[in-house]
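User: These chains co-purify. Model them together.
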Amino acid sequence: MSGIRLLVGTRKGAFILTADGKRSQWEISGPHFAGWEIYHLKGSPVNPDRIYASQSTGWFGQLIQRSEDGGKTWEPMGKDFVYEGTPGTHQWYDGTQHPWEFKRVWHLEPSLTDPDTVYAGVEDAGLFRTTDGAKSWQELPGLRSAKGKLWQPGAGGMCLHTILLDPVNPERIFVAISAAGAFRSDDGGQTFRPINRGLKSPYELPDPDAEVGHCVHRIALHPSRPEVLYMQKHWDVMRSDNAGDLWTEVSDNLPSDFGFPIDVHAHEPETIYVVPIKSDSEHFPPDGKLRVYRSRTGGNQWEALTKGLPQEDCYVNVLRDAMAVDSLDECGIYFGTTGGQVYASADAGDSWKAVARDLPAVLSVEVQTLP
Amino acid sequence: MIRVVLPVHLRNLARVSDEVPLAIAGVVSVRSVLDALEARYPVLRGTIRDQTTGKRRPLVRFFACGEDVSHEVPDAPLPEPVAQGAEPFCIIGAMAGG
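Assistant: Joint model of the two components:
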């Protein structure tokens, strides 16, 4: 019988949750790397027992760990993230230029075809790649050439948090950076260009024609048609049908179009999920009700999914990397909260169950569907 | 042999459970101790001092014989009891975060 493995990164360590294909009984192992911030873990699609993890603290800096046995044991790998050439400067909060400084790895995206190749999104925003299983990392500096001098950190830092590898066109990579926007490469990461036309951020970015500066929180695609992108922006849920060349808003009847994660059903490319959050000042669900919203029409028509989720006095947040979908026949959806809960749905969001209730604040959730 | 006490996170990372004994050739200083420590436990490179600049990470402190020597020049000799192994050289994660 197939199985599910959840890789949960938290403020104080990593946890691995496993279940069989019924997804009713869960076992929790961890904390791995107790006391460390684990921003993200992700397994190789080619070799699911190879998992990469980003481990850091403000005290002792950044490490990268790799497991060859599905997360039972780990080995520290290369952790030198050195910007290519003279790092240069980006815009600072006061409008002056500020030197690029590496802070941490937010996101690890293993290659779809090679278990030794992994992309890393870092703060200050940059894209790195390893081709030797994380022994060494090299920057893809073409990204920072895409108007990097104009990028400016938001409140959460200037982080590269989303990396999407196109399963149809191996030369195409999408990335997203907080307070800078979304970017696309069509040449395997050598060069990038901003893909932010149609985004509107009137309060944060008065210039309606600004190519960069939009606070993109997350983008997602369905592997069967990677030219269609969905985006949760700081405010607004957006959609592009042309690989980001133009975006249109699909927020419509959401109770709030502010939020962090967005994801796509494994088998229905027009079915998408968001978790509305009240506002940028109040990072918790509207009315104290934790509701996932699902659209089966690729946006605009949204339904609240509430069964099994707290519907009163709930003031947690769901961070951008903390939602994932499995690929079993009946698609499973998972998300983690800053209150330490991990919720799972084995029926595409119709009903939910807390499969972990008292973990440290959850930073990321990834799921592996195992044979 | 000198003795080095690591904070718990770095003990876990280096997979040691107690003080780390190190043989130091020449002057026993913060720099020579860290050089020997990182040579023996490469995983600790970058966790105590920046790998590029060599500067101590901001929330790490060094103590010898009860004194904070974090701001001493890295090549200054450490006190004789530390150099002789009678007292440990302590690497501390500073209190931070409330």
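Chain B has a mean pLDDT of 94.
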